[in-house]
Specification:
Layout lengths: L14 H13 L6 H12 L1 H12 L1 H12 L9 H13 L3 E5 L5 E5 L7 E7 L13 E3 L2 E3 L7 H17 L7 E6 L9 H9 L3 E7 L6 E3 L4 E10 L3 E2 L9 H13 L9 E10 L5 E2 L2 E10 L2 H12 L2 H12 L6 E10 L9 H12 L5 E2 L8 H5 L4 E4 L4 E3 L7 E3 L5 H14 L7
Parallel strand pairs: 3-6, 3-7, 7-16, 8-15
Antiparallel strand pairs: 1-2, 2-6, 4-5, 5-18, 8-16, 9-13, 9-14, 10-12, 11-13, 17-18
Length: about 425
């Protein structure tokens, strides 16, 4: 099949599509073209493809063992290097060409095709949400594997290695080169820094397949955007008794949070906000000189996201003014803001060839596909750049993601890498079979 880069930036998609996209996703079946249907029929009938799917099923235990080995290597935000070095070694051992770690910390290698056309990008993120020092050693109980990060996204990393092994076992030759990559900076304040760095340096990517999550039927093709701010309130501080009458940075922050809590947002397109963390002050008996909060805002519509941002940011200075007016002191509190996260909200048609390919890849492994409503994944970045992209899941069942009790269950887990394998072939083409 042929995947074509959009001629225009994703931000030119009409606003109405961004508004309706989540509703369409929940109710829409992609219109499958005869070209795409024919390509996947050929793939499913091909002996090498069948061999690859069978290999992945038989490789299941090895893939799970790899998953447990990877999760034991801690990968906190901005400190993914140790896991990245391990993963780079695995890519080298599996025979990928030009394996390297870039300046941002991504590790990747190429499986060459026949050299026709731009490259296909397949990735899973290396980082987890858990801070340094978290015990990530896996523990098995009642058929489940418990470990922080065991599913999100260690499973994606392990599934990708199984797919590479299937390529080697079958000797199947793709038309396009395929880049397999472990990326950094997907979680927390990582701000998609790995994806942003990679796509800055590589202008020859024609489609992006992102691996994240577990439920095997899901296809994510719409991007929930987010803006995140560090908001810093500053004052002079002082003794709680001796300097009483000076405005407090914490009190100013409290006034701001109270105003933010009263903001109303639309349910469709879904638009949300939260003050996620707060910190500040030095002692119980001191007027706070500093207070910092982290604010997260999300929406399935870039327009609504910007509208929410303007509304909330307009509440900060009035909160400070009220705190200063309350005490009428020559010492004042001020506020500064810093953008620390910018994930674009964007959309693509449910009938896009890459969505058709994801749909047929899911059907090919005997699963009824499901188009998800918008979500925030590494696919946000290429979609916003006008590059066709979807996020597919990696198999098994999961629970308590982003919590210390995170677990993953290997129920028919091989279906995840099977779908990724046939999807990659659909995008890259198989020499002599499909383009």
């Amino acid at each position: 099949m042929i995947i074509r880069r959009s001629r225009c930036k994703a931000r030119t998609i009409p606003f109405i599509l961004l508004i309706l996209a989540p509703m369409l996703a929940a109710a829409t079946t992609p219109k499958i073209s005869s070209e795409t249907e024919n390509a996947f029929s050929k793939l499913q009938a091909n002996p090498q493809v069948k061999q690859g799917l069978e290999f992945i099923k038989n490789d299941d235990a090895n893939t799970i063992a790899e998953q447990k080995a990877i999760v034991a290597i801690s990968a906190p935000p901005f400190k993914e290097k140790v896991r990245a070095e391990y993963y780079m070694k695995r890519l080298q051992e599996l025979g990928l060409k030009d394996v390297k770690m870039d300046s941002e910390g991504n590790v990747y290698g190429i499986r060459p095709g026949t050299g026709k056309g731009p490259k296909i990008f397949v990735e899973a993120h290396l980082d987890t949400v858990f801070p340094e020092g978290t015990n990530t050693k896996p523990v098995e109980k009642d058929g489940k594997i418990f470990a922080p990060g065991i599913s999100d996204n260690t499973r994606g990393l392990a599934a990708m290695l199984s797919v590479i092994r299937a390529f080697d076992a079958t000797g199947i030759k793709t038309v396009r080169d395929v880049i397999f990559c472990g990326t950094v900076g997907e979680e927390g304040l990582g701000d998609l820094r790995g994806m942003k760095a990679f796509f800055r340096e590589h202008k020859d990517i024609t489609a992006s397949l992102n691996i994240d999550g577990a439920p095997i039927q899901e296809i994510t093709y719409l991007a929930t955007g987010s803006h995140r701010y560090e908001i810093h309130f500053k004052g002079a501080g002082g003794h709680s008794f001796g300097a009483f009458g000076r405005p407090s940075a914490i009190h100013a922050m409290g006034r701001a949070i109270a105003k933010i809590a009263e903001v109303r947002t639309p349910s469709d397109p879904k638009t949300t906000f939260t003050v996620g963390t707060v910190s500040g002050g030095t002692s119980v008996n001191a007027i706070a000189a500093d207070a910092v909060m982290l604010l997260d805002m999300r929406s399935n519509s870039q327009e609504e996201l910007l509208k929410l941002e303007r509304q909330i940011m307009s509440l900060l200075q009035p909160a400070v003014d009220e705190e200063n007016a309350r005490w009428n002191n020559e010492v004042k509190v001020s506020v500064e803001t810093k953008l620390v996260g910018d994930r674009p909200a964007d959309s693509q048609s449910p009938d896009a060839p890459i969505v058709q390919a994801a749909w047929l890849s899911t059907r090919a492994i005997g699963i009824a596909p499901e188009l998800r409503t918008a979500s925030s994944t590494n696919a946000n970045l290429p979609i916003n750049l006008g590059i066709p992209a979807v996020t597919l899941t990696s198999g098994g069942e999961e629970g308590f993601n982003h919590a210390p009790g995170e677990w993953w269950e290997p129920k028919n887990a091989y279906l995840g890498p099977q779908r990724i394998f046939i999807m990659t072939l659909g995008l890259a083409g198989v020499d002599g079979i499909t383009q």
